[in-house]
Amino acid sequence: MAEALAYRAELIVELYATPTALERYTDIAQSAVDAGVDVEFVTEKVLESMADTVTPQGIVAVCTQFPTSLKDLLRARPDGSTPMLLAILEEVRDPGNAGTMVRAADASGADGVIFSGRSVDLYNPKVVRASTGSLFHLPVAVDADLENVVARCRDAGIQVLAADIKGDDLLQVRSEGVLTAPTAWLFGNEARGLTDEKLAFADRVVRVPIYGRAESMNLATAASVCLYESAFAQRAER
Asked: What is the Cα–Cα distance from 126 to 146, expressed in whole angstroms?
């Protein structure tokens, strides 16, 4: 809520709150005033029926959807401060994972996220909550055709690295200097990963090594590692 008001207030169509909640969250109340957003007061019972959480915080906003086109997302930044860094989510079905990956992309300074294939709906309430506001910070595009996404990335001079257990060790790839280039990380389904056909789309397949005894790594955690490795390499190169 606070992030929507701070960064994309023009998207807010309606804002509902209980009087008690607005007294409790004075920063949100002030942000609404500053942004010129009117607040509609409702009872706690009414607000509970509007929210999809068990214990709502007492404030609900209705926002318009705001997907970014793939063309606009891939457009080179005018400042050129660091190489492009993107995350492609292919068939990522769990909303918690998807939202957390958007949050990780935002935290690592990535330029955007692309939802491809039959990934979860970008505006699923759990995706929005798991992003903790990052959905309002960076552009997110939706394109069902992964082959088209990869082709467009290459046309923009962006290499595609697929994260998969079958790939080369991330440490090896880092030592080769591969991560300093403009990069789109490709992440697959939580249970099935990426098929061989989809792995073939990538310029290189990379795995996050597991040094301990864990059987596997959560998708969102692995995505965070990959994105930050690229962010570190790109900034060190600059």
From this structure: 24
Is residue 110 domain-shared with residue 178, that is, in the same domain?
A: yes
- pTM of this structure: 0.87
Distance CA 220, CA 97 (A): 5
Q: Report d(CA 197, CA 210) in Å as an integer.
A: 25
Question: What is the tally of structural domains in the chain?
Answer: 2
Question: Domain span at residue 225?
Answer: 70-237
On whether both 18 and 83 belong to a single domain, the answer is: no
d(CA 162, CA 150): 11
Please tell me the predicted confidence (pLDDT) of residue 156: 92
Residues 181 and 159 sit within 8 Å (Cβ to Cβ): yes
Tokens (6 digits) for 15: 């804002």
Residue 2 has pLDDT above 80, yes or no: no
- Within the chain, residue ranges assigned H as helices are 2-7, 19-24, 26-35, 44-50, 70-74, 95-107, 125-130, 146-155, 170-175, 196-199, 219-237
Burial of 82 (0-12, 13-18, 19+ CB in 10 A): middle
pLDDT of residue 5: 80
Q: CB under 8 Å to 198, separation ≥6 — which residues? A: 90, 146, 162, 186, 188
Is the domain of 200 the same as that of 221? yes
How is residue 234 written in tokens?
A: 């790109």
